[in-house]
Design a protein that fits this description.
431 residues, 36% helix, 14 helices, four-stranded mixed beta sheet, 16% strand, Aspartate Aminotransferase, domain 2, seven-stranded mixed beta sheet, alpha/beta, Aspartate Aminotransferase, domain 1
Length: 431
């Protein structure tokens, strides 16, 4: 596959953009090689600068659940853009999407729109601290909640330690208020509560982890977290930036039947434009300015282009709830095809899946947290990624990312992908 134009663009980009990219995973550091530069996308497909076509299994990391350039979304964006792109003044559009979103989100009366998932999670934690009057936060190793300082924390040498920064620029003072525990380990959380009585404001978690690959919660894990939060007067924050409006109309809360106190959103809620949001019961949200003392603001929050793209996308999902079953069926079909191909080999593997999220781990161990996810063979993953890429399949360029299917993907596309995978296992893995 000829990618000369992508190579030229990457070399050019590195002169003016750190690492040549605006988000690190795009640089292909963990898989090697040259990143692909895309010039257009439509439906299930990406097209690079050399006009190669790829079946897209990242869907812009989740938001393009309907497929790229959906005609109704594009038409609505084009129409509203003629009236102006930003006002910094309230609009009816904000009310319409707020009414629509809260009608779909369990356990939420009010919603505040921001510009990214990071901003949503950052604001949710500030709100939780303001509401409870406490300072400490529990997060889980391997869960990503954006790049705010207090999220860039990992566990120390033991599972139950104060966090230490894992990025320069994050101060020790910030890190001390973030406590970490292994995902799917409720006993670790219980111990943290016991060791920090009356200090913990919130527990924040991806209800289905998507940044150590796709890692679903173990049975009763979320329910027990909820009870621990109730018992300790802390708030449970679900980071549904990935899962919200993707796993079901009501997201992971609805699918897994566990209600959080604050829920954060991004990805799908923006319909492909930069949007984030956080939602909760009215009594919690009333602590937010201008009603309450917890400050949060954003110049471009609620801008008409983003609100329009989000509103149309959510409307289409609500009007066509069968999309969620369609996506689940397609993801199950892909899972089965991959499993059948792998059974013909001796390659160790585990496939995790929930709804339209899926990941392949090159380890025979069950993947339930970041430690078990890290056991995957990265040399196998590199061969897999590049073998699929040269056959026209675009997968996440990291073993620690979930796949996100979009409904424009056809069963013909899935069969092509499965056949390509079979070729990779027998040709590229033996090379």
């Amino acid at each position: 596959m000829e990618i000369s134009k992508s190579i030229q663009l990457f070399n050019r980009a590195k002169n003016v953009i750190p690492g040549g990219v605006n988000s690190p995973v795009r640089a292909f550091k963990s898989v090697g090689g040259n990143p692909i530069f895309v010039k257009s996308a439509n439906g299930a497909y990406l097209y690079d600068e050399n006009d190669n076509r790829y079946i897209d299994y990242i869907s812009s990391w989740g938001p393009m659940i309907l497929g790229h350039a959906h005609p109704k979304v594009i038409e609505a964006i084009q129409s509203v853009s003629l009236k102006g792109t930003s006002y910094g003044i309230p609009t009816e559009l904000e009310i319409k999407i707020a009414e629509l979103a809260t009608s779909m989100i369990p356990n939420a009366d009010c919603i505040r729109f921001v510009n990214s998932g990071t901003e949503a999670c950052m604001s949710a934690v500030r709100l939780a601290r303001g509401y409870t009057g406490k300072s400490k936060l529990i997060k889980f190793v391997g869960c990503y909640h954006g790049h705010a300082d207090y999220f860039l924390i990992e566990a120390g040498s033991g599972a139950l330690t104060f966090g230490v920064p894992n990025s320069p620029g994050v101060t020790a003072g910030t890190a001390k208020d973030t406590l970490t525990a292994p995902y799917n380990d409720v006993s670790a959380v219980r111990q943290l509560f016991e060791e920090n009585k009356n200090d913990i404001a919130a527990v924040i978690i991806e209800p289905v982890a998507g940044n150590m690959g796709c890692v679903p919660p173990e049975k009763d894990f979320l329910e027990e977290l909820k009870q621990l939060c109730i018992s300790n007067a802390a708030l449970l924050v679900f980071d549904e930036v990935m899962t919200g409006f993707r796993l079901s109309l009501g997201g992971a809360q609805e699918l897994l039947n566990v209600n959080a106190d604050i829920i954060t959103f991004g990805k799908v809620i923006g319909g492909g434009l930069p949007v984030g949001a956080f939602a909760a019961r009215k009594e919690v949200m009333d602590f937010l300015s201008p009603n309450g003392p917890v400050y949060q603001a954003g110049t471009l929050s609620g801008n008409p282009l983003a609100m329009t793209a989000g509103y149309v996308t959510l409307s289409l999902l609500k009007e066509n709830p069968e999309i969620f079953q369609s996506l689940e069926n397609k993801t199950a079909y892909l899972n089965e095809g991959f499993e059948n191909a792998l059974k013909k080999t001796n390659i160790p593997h585990t496939i995790n899946r929930l709804g339209s999220m899926m990941s392949l781990h090159f380890t025979s161990d069950k993947v339930v947290d970041f430690t078990s996810s890290s056991k995957g063979d990265n040399d196998y993953f590199k061969k897999y990624f590049h073998g699929m890429l040269k056959r026209g399949i675009y997968l996440p360029p990291s073993a620690y990312e979930s796949y996100f299917l979009n409904d424009a993907i056809s069963y013909e596309d899935l069969d092509f992908t499965i056949n390509a995978f079979d070729e990779v296992l027998h040709e590229d893995f033996s090379a």
